[in-house]
Specification:
CATH superfamily: Electron Transport, Fmn-binding Protein, Chain A
CATH topology: Pnp Oxidase, Chain A
Shape: globular
Structural class: mainly beta
Order of helices and strands: HEEEEEHEHEEEEEE
Strand content: 35-45%
Radius of gyration: 17 Å
Oligomer: single chain
Number of helices: 3
Number of strands: 12
Strand order of the largest sheet: 3-2-6-9-10-5-4
Low-confidence stretches: none
Largest sheet: 7 strands, antiparallel
Number of domains: 1
Distance between the termini: 39 Å
């Protein structure tokens, strides 16, 4: 079954684990997500990473979460960060997401600012959440970082979407 994806027919199922990793990843990929860039300040300066593991958690208090992978070279900076910013990318910002997927230390970009806590802030993103770490929980090969939102900003536009290994945009339909 490794390397191939079989459609579910009448409740077909499999047990995720050794030998089914690719199949499991393909099934997870059927859930479309937005694309974010998370930024913080690490021991050697500003650090960024592209992530799609972002979700809202609570309105009162305002909490969000995301989950960096333990295998990431940038993991230590994000797992220990007391402040960070989550930037939701617009449909036209694929290049920005790709930039931080490849190099998390290159902030030689136009319009990068510093937030009140010194965190690098990317301009013109669809939404931005400036956060203070509230908790970090074990999440297997990831950790779950819960942040309290200190400030939020947004603009009009369509989100950049990631699904089944591809990037795209979102089109609305009318009922």
């Amino acid at each position: 079954m490794e390397g191939s994806f079989q459609p579910m027919v009448d409740g077909d199922s499999f047990i995720p684990g050794p030998g089914t990793e690719r199949h499991y990843r393909a099934v997870l990929g059927l859930f479309a997500t937005g694309v974010t860039v998370v930024t913080t300040v690490g021991a050697k300066g500003p650090v960024g990473i592209t992530a799609n593991s972002f979700a809202s958690l609570s309105l009162d208090p305002p909490l969000v979460l995301w989950a960096p992978a333990r295998a990431s070279r940038r993991f230590a900076a994000f797992a220990s960060a007391t402040h960070y910013a989550i930037h939701v990318l617009g449909a036209e910002q694929f290049a920005l997401g790709r930039h931080f997927a490849r190099d998390g230390l290159d902030f030689d970009l136009p319009g990068v600012e510093r937030g009140a806590e010194g965190v690098p802030l990317l301009t013109d993103c669809l939404a931005r959440f400036e956060c203070r770490r509230r908790a970090v929980h074990d999440g297997g090969d990831h950790v779950i970082v819960v942040g309290e939102v200190l400030r939020a900003a947004s603009r009009e536009g369509a989100p950049l979407i990631f699904s089944a290994g591809h990037y795209g945009s979102f089109a609305t339909t009318k009922d």
